[in-house]
Amino acid sequence: MPHPRTRVKICGLTRPQDIATAASAGADAVGFVFYPQSSRLLGLEQARSLRAAVPAFVDVVALFVNAPRDEVQAVIDQVRPGLLQFHGDEPPEYCAGFHHPYMRAFRLGAPGLDTPQGVLAAAQQHGAAAAWLFDSYSPGYGGSGKTFDLSLLDAVRREPGSRPVVLAGGLNAATVAASIRDLRPYAVDVSSGVESAPGIKSAEKIKAFMRAVAQGDGAVVDKDAQTV
Ligand SMILES: O=C(O)c1ccccc1NCC(=O)[C@H](O)[C@H](O)COP(=O)(O)O
């Protein structure tokens, strides 16, 4: 059975032309960052305007870090993301409380997330999530371009009840195909690796990244179709 196509989310978009490039290159989702300390931060009006530039069949993911509930709700109401991404220390009840599909991010290498069993235990608390996103630990929470040791996902990969795995953290066109071959994630997520400057995406890097994902998918066609 063929390996299902790896989905791609491109995160941290701030310009309509980058959304157009991502969509025409085949990205499945674009990420809008609502973390005030981020260089990719969007205001509500800017996000509404960018949302209007997202074509049909491309999902919008709204990313938060420990945000007040009313800020998340305002984005849900006004930007209409298909998926929320919680990238901080949000507990399960908070994440589920919006009654909106969400993805919980885990920053691997942080205390408690530095062993495969610790990672699995943390992720299993979020069994209601639509997906689990695994990123590298960085003091600034995410979008750092840092990688993590993939063996930290060993217990998650062996666990039959796992949620779909989104691989993030330092991916780029030179590395993503090998990561797909090794891990076979449901989706990959990239930000820094397709940028020319923070928040400014490079059309060439986006296209190269999408080509490399297709190469990674092609390399696993004849193997066991199991994905995480
Ligand atoms: O992009 C940010 O500035 C950001 C800030 C706070 C939390 C998360 C953030 N970004 C997350 C992402 O862009 C991706 O989900 C992921 O971390 C991949 O980033 P990168 O390593 O830069 O490819």
Automatic annotation (TrEMBL):
Broad class of enzyme this protein falls into: isomerase
One MF annotation (Gene Ontology) recorded for this entry: phosphoribosylanthranilate isomerase activity
Catalytic activity: N-(5-phospho-beta-D-ribosyl)anthranilate = 1-(2-carboxyphenylamino)-1-deoxy-D-ribulose 5-phosphate
Domain of life: Bacteria
Keywords: Amino-acid biosynthesis, Aromatic amino acid biosynthesis, Isomerase, Tryptophan biosynthesis
Ranges for domain N-(5'phosphoribosyl) anthranilate isomerase (PRAI): 8-211
Family annotation (CDD domains): PRAI (cd00405)
GO process annotations (BP): L-tryptophan biosynthetic process
A Pfam family reported for this protein in Swiss-Prot or TrEMBL: PRAI
Pathway membership: Amino-acid biosynthesis; L-tryptophan biosynthesis; L-tryptophan from chorismate: step 3/5
SUPFAM superfamilies cross-referenced by the UniProt entry: Ribulose-phoshate binding barrel
InterPro entries: Aldolase_TIM, PRAI_dom, RibuloseP-bd_barrel, TrpF_fam
Enzyme Commission number: 5.3.1.24
Keyword 4Fe-4S: no
Family, per entry: Belongs to the TrpF family.
Annotated NCBIfam families: PRK01222.1-4, PRK01222.1-6
HAMAP family linked to this entry: PRAI
Protein name: N-(5'-phosphoribosyl)anthranilate isomerase
Gene transcribed to yield this protein: trpF
